[in-house]
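Why predict the complex rather than its parts? Because the way molecules touch one another can change local conformation, and only a joint prediction can capture that. The input here totals 302 residues.
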Amino acid sequence: MHGMAPVKKATLEHTATFQLGTIGAVVSQRFAEKIEPLGLKPKHVGLLTLLAANPASSQLDMATAMNVAPSLVVRIADQLESLGAIERTRDPDDRRRQTLRLTERGRALFAECASITRDLEADLLAGLQIAERKALIAALRHVAGNLGLAF
Amino acid sequence: MHGMAPVKKATLEHTATFQLGTIGAVVSQRFAEKIEPLGLKPKHVGLLTLLAANPASSQLDMATAMNVAPSLVVRIADQLESLGAIERTRDPDDRRRQTLRLTERGRALFAECASITRDLEADLLAGLQIAERKALIAALRHVAGNLGLAF
DNA sequence: TGCAATCATTCACAGTAAGAATGATTGACG
DNA sequence: CGTCAATCATTCTTACTGTGAATGATTGCA
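Output of the joint prediction:
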């Protein structure tokens, strides 16, 4: 039978670079699967998360914070609005701006996502000592800093 | 002036889950930018890497190893072939199979990618002690195991 | 021999995101 | 105070990935 010999891994597999890339992709996908029953995708959660910390933000601010084109925020906000998760209101001080706010339902959805994240976190870190977990998170934050990400 | 107040970060930012997802995406993108001048994209490098460790593999084996549809491997292999990086030959023992092999140029390209990865690795881990790096990589491998990834 | 399975390939299609064009509103400046 | 450029949201078009279905060649087995 063909194709049964296990495929060998190569040098790059041992670099943190490679591992971070692959793990990141799988984690995101895992998360995406878990939130799908809520009718959400990762970008939706990204916006919900930002709004939880920054109520009444404009769409443009959200776009730059998410590193995404403004036109994409329109669609994401449309979908969240039709889910009843957010409310759009024109900023009375600047009627060009659309201010976004979480609704009660939006807060509930965000809480669900946080809970899902905690579950996933437990899966990811299973078998690591508390000290190891803290070291990992500290190292990740350091790496994020090296990448110019502000955590 | 609007939009100047820094956007606050939220609870999820402190989880390894969130950090891994975001860092993974940024690392992949950084890598993609660096290999772009070579005419390569991440999937191309993925295939090159597999072929470096597994010469004369069939396209289907590569597809399953890469977790990707066979039809996509066709396109990636087409492009690598037109770059002169790989050679396609029918397997004489099973003429349905197309066996892929790195050419000299393919090996050179792969070496370039390995070098780029090393550079990126140095950037990522800058400021971490040797012991911290080892601990990080060990922890990442552990996490990968929890995700069912075989590193 | 004939038939189902396998591998590669092509094609049509869905999903995601960016960018350009449009329209409303604002603020600055003559 | 009126014009004009800049800003924000929105729509529409387009590019890019990746999947899945249909096709064709080849194989192995009943």
